[in-house]
Amino acid sequence: MVKIIQNFLDNNPGTRDAIRLITNIRTYNKQYNFLKKSIDWDREKIEEYQINELKKIIKHAYQNVPYYTKLFKNLGLEPNDFQSFKDLIKLPFITKKIIRRNLEDFKAKNYPKFKIQQISTGGSTGEPLHIYCERGAADARYIAYLQTIFKQSNCSYSNRHIYITGVNKIYKSQFFGRIMLISSFFINDKNLPLIIQKIRKFKPRFIVSYPSAIIKITRFINKKNLAPFSNIKSIVCAGEILYNNQRELLKKTYNCEVYGFYNHAELTVFAGTCNFNYIYHIYPEYGFCELIDKNNKTVSSDGGKGEIIGTGFFNYVFPLIRYRTNDIGILTNKKCECGRNYLSLKSIEGRLQYYVISKTNKQISLMGISSIIVKSSNNIDDSQFLQETEGELILSIVKDKNFSKSDEVNLINNLTKKFGKEINLKIRYVENIDRSVSGKTKFLIQKLPVEY
């Protein structure tokens, strides 16, 4: 019976999340009410809170988590050795490889088995990562953070809404008709008329989606001169990089607010945009975030680039301290009009795997390439890069019936201007672009090792 129920919940994630929220409503309310107050904290209050949380998670890890107990003893460290943010450099980074090799040793000994659930990453780097968290409570806290983003456009998790994600049916009604899931796997010209019909009939107040998925729907609507969805107050994008040209297309088509949020299953960093600009505000209540450059130094200058390193504050079941996300962020010291005193990122460039290697062994980010493709031709349904050799890129294109030789020439010329002589570009035409196991579109399949 337990397996039957678990299979049902796994296949109905909207209902599963709603049930976990209801059964952990106190945890949700406590977290959400806390976030409503902490948003106005000054930097001194934020620093005080984060240092206290760091001390607590480090002490817990030392006392209850075998991996850290051993690590601290090998390094000759104790919890009292950590009194400031600077003391964190005494600890090495935690990587996915380390977690995979020591999975059970990262699990806290003081949590009973029935309070623990396993979750997995989307596997965007090629291999999913499994970790553990507190059953139900972790979901409730996560939804509380999400609600702070929904609330910016006067939306609520209790409103009718749509999730576009990697499920196994074209669409599913969830939780007594309050939530609809639409599968990113089935978004193509054949299924889009049905999908658009279902969205219209459902009348969602907001949509949460991978950017690539909602963009496909939007381009189809515009191409066919269909009326856009009229009920939508906001679109919230996550799971992939949200490019500015995508954001502008969504805002123009639906006349609604478009937000991006950044997080990952490892539960160490959460960030979101606000109503005033495209800056990602990193929530200090969720964890401590470091931005580390290639020399393992903290990035502090405006426009500086570094890898996002996270230490989560609430996953005591499986604490991760100084976890390497492999995501690259660009720092901004600009004060946002929203008034928050958070660490902020001008942009998130995505995974290290979204960098290509040039003929001279330089790393080139594909940030902004999406807009070049869009501006080069309106007759491309989908695209994906592949790199197998230094200095060479293969661009796979799904073209529509109006795609012509002039589209190809225009595209090649514009991309050549971007890459210069560093990259040789080849184009091939395909019927479709495969998605990852979680339903995301990988803009680049990188076969070469990329180290930061």
How would you state the average pLDDT, rounded?
90
Give the C-alpha Rg: 22 Å
Secondary-structure-based class equals: alpha/beta
Distance between the termini: 47 Å
Number of helical regions: 12
Main beta-sheet annotation: 12 strands, mixed
Task: Tell me the name of the CATH class of the largest domain.
Answer: Alpha Beta
Q: What strand order characterises the main sheet?
A: 4-5-3-6-7-8-9-10-14-13-12-11
Second-tier CATH architecture of the largest domain:
3-Layer(aba) Sandwich
> What percent strand?
15-25%
Low-confidence sequence ranges: none
Report the strand count: 20
> Which fold does the CATH topology of the largest domain refer to?
Rossmann fold
**Helical coverage, percent range:** 25-40%
Output the CATH homologous superfamily of the largest domain: ANL, N-terminal domain
Shape: globular
Number of domains: 2
Structure description:
This protein is an alpha/beta fold. The chain folds into 2 domains: 2-351, Rossmann fold; 358-446, ANL, C-terminal domain (GMP Synthetase, Chain A, domain 3, 2-Layer Sandwich). 32% of the residues lie in helices and 24% in strands. It has 12 helices and 20 strands. Strands 4-5-3-6-7-8-9-10-14-13-12-11 form a 12-stranded mixed β-sheet, sandwiched between helices. Helix 2 (13-23) packs across helix 7 (137-150), helix 3 packs across helix 7 and helix 9 (211-223) crosses helix 10 (244-254). The termini are far apart. The mean pLDDT is 90.
